[in-house]
Amino acid sequence: MIDDLASTVDTAVIDISIKEIGQIEVPEVKKETPRQDVEKKVYRVTGTINKIKQYRDGDIHIRLDDGNDNYIITEIPNPGCVYAASASMLNEWNQAISFVKANGFEDLEGKTVTITGVAFVDIDHHYKRKQAENNMELHPIIKIEF
Known about the structure:
This protein is an alpha/beta fold.
């Protein structure tokens, strides 16, 4: 949410299932591909936290599943990152981080949560991982709740 097109994101929330979000038609993207129209939307999904991990860059990745082998990767950007300082959603990221810390990483795995976030089409990493079929993610997370 720091690119030139961040202000074009429609923040009206779209409720969708994990399976449905993985079936949205998305363009193939490369690292340098600008934000696509599908990435200008905010979605809300409910699922079980399959895995949660904080990466070296400080970002928190949360993988949700729906109990039927459908997955989506969601991510809270590191609010301390130099790039995050100018983000319009910095307050929302801080609140999401606070939720995770207050509930504990280990204690959250296996819990059902509802996550609201901005759509993001990740590049094809060319290896099998538990993710949406179309490489769609919710990145950044702007709200997480029980």
